[in-house]
Fold this protein.
Amino acid sequence: MASGKSKSAKEVTSVFGTLVRVAEPEDTGGPTCVRVKTVKKSGKEEDVQEENGVLFWVNKSGFPIDDKTWDRMWDHVARIHPDGYDVIHKVRDKKDLPSVPIPQAPTNFSASVPISERLDRIQNYMRTLQYNHTGTQFFEIRKNRPLSGLLESAKEMIKEALPIKCLEAVILGIYLSNGFLGVERFPLSFKSVFGGNVHRHVVLGIYYAGSYGTIGMSRREDLMYKPVTFKSLSDLVFDYEKSYNKFMHDVKKVKVGMPIPHDPHSYEFINWKAVTVSPNKMTKKEMTKDLEFMAKEIRTRCQANCDLPQVKLYSSRSQAKSWTITLHSPRKSSVEAPRDARTSLQQATKIYRAHTSIPAESGTKKKPQSTGSSQTTSTVADSADYQLRI
């Protein structure tokens, strides 16, 4: 922040640490934005994150929840609940509370069940889990984890059956929709401003049979579930913008990620931001053009069902302004692992350790290749620094 500008801070202090929200005016003189100030206590960083302009704790101790995290959650609830510490005596100290039924996750579907009904069951299951208002996120979700690791967190959500937030719902939706034939999933993120505070939200985009929709969790019904009836990606985004405006939110950015593979053992990383559009800086026509580039990639991935670096998608004279995808990998490799669940671990090991190329047909013994084929393999671009030209 530039010198000479005032800074106002809102703190929630307890024996477990301090939650601090620092509101700073932007350099352009626009509305204030919110960021998290990391607070240290006893030489250790507290587990603090932010969502929708609200600070919250994150459970990093796993399950069963340790005493420190448990006491910290109730202390935070007492500070934000209208009844204060009385809620602890009414709920926590009561011994004869009724048992809470554990909902059954929709993990097995008959082949005759249509995709729309499957997605409805997944969304209804998320509603049954309810949105987490405790101020403590029960499941730690790190976006930089491989897909296989994130899906382990989804299994834990089903086992514990605790309330979830929007990011947890995306991971849960990916797990429950794995293996749906003809369905492509992609992250859809929003950044909006209301009352000087920045709000961030993410849902799981769905593409099926030429139509788009979303599943997820939010405090608002209009900001989570959208049936798969939108004929274009831009129509879906504009409908979300309309819903945000209904709640007096000004949408600043919309980010569309790459399609997510269906292989539950994949070591790939979710690309959360492939295309970024700014409704307050771009016209509807410009947004539609950039979103259509992303929609073509989703449709191509659905049809080809193969990895992005091995497919030449389009040939266009111009490149979308907002298309800035970079494929991230922990180590540089010539190509990425295939989606075949039977060989993904073996292929990933080859990539991570030996930087070797993957044969086009998995499951067969690698035969000696001619000079021409080896030369073709060497021309594949490095996926760690790969940029699409549209």
